């Protein structure tokens, strides 16, 4: 395995850790965001509670999906699975949606993912994935 693939693996694991931080920050700041809306008079107290619940649930679900995706597919990518490399490219592209949010933490995840994705698509790594595919029946 080329060292670049191993480096990319750890960068994807770092993306998973950043996703965990993003999930925690989103949950911690959910109440403040909803209270601003409540102060504007657009939501009742019951609607505010429901909004906090939806916001927290969405943050947890999306955060867990990102964490699982990065870790699971990074493991397969490290083993030489070309499809996992492509899925990680897609997951990194999807992280563009959160790049500007959560105090710059989303941008950090995007940068780590982009660097890792570049590492797995440049020649030494590409040869590794081609050889892994050729060795399979």
Mean pLDDT: 83
Segments where pLDDT lies below 50 for 5+ residues?
Answer: none
**Alpha-beta content class:** mainly alpha
Instruction: List SSEs in N-to-C order.
Output: HHHHH
Rounded Rg: 19 Å
Number of helices: 5
Shape: elongated
Number of DSSP E strands: 0
Q: What is the helix fraction of residues, given as a range?
A: over 70%
Distance from first to last alpha carbon: 20 Å
Main sheet: strands, sense, barrel: none
Could you tell me the strand content as a percent range? under 5%
Number of domains: 1
Give a description of the structure.
The protein is mainly alpha-helical. The protein has one domain (3-131). 83% of the residues lie in helices and 0% in strands. The chain is built from five helices and no strands. Helix 1 (3-39) runs antiparallel to helix 2 (45-78) and helix 2 (45-78) packs antiparallel against helix 3. The longest helix has 37 residues, at 3-39. The model has no long low-confidence stretch (mean pLDDT 83).
Write the layout of secondary structure elements.
Blueprint (H helix, E strand, L loop, with lengths): L2 H37 L5 H34 L3 H13 L10 H17 L1 H13 L2
Summarize the structure.
With 137 residues, the chain is mainly alpha-helical.
Features:
137 residues; mainly alpha
């Amino acid at each position: 395995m080329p060292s670049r693939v191993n480096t990319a693996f750890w960068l994807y694991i770092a993306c998973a850790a950043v996703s965990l931080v993003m999930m925690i920050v989103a949950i911690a700041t959910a109440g403040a965001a909803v209270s601003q809306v409540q102060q504007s008079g657009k939501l009742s107290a019951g609607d505010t509670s429901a909004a906090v619940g939806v916001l927290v649930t969405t943050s947890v679900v999306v955060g867990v999906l990102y964490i699982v995706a990065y870790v699971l597919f990074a493991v397969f990518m490290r083993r030489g699975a070309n499809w996992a490399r492509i899925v990680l490219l897609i997951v990194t592209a999807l992280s563009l949606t959160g790049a500007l949010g959560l105090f710059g933490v989303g941008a950090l995840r995007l940068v780590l993912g982009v660097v890792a994705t570049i590492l797995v698509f440049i020649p030494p790594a590409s040869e590794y994935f081609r050889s892994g595919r050729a060795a399979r029946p």
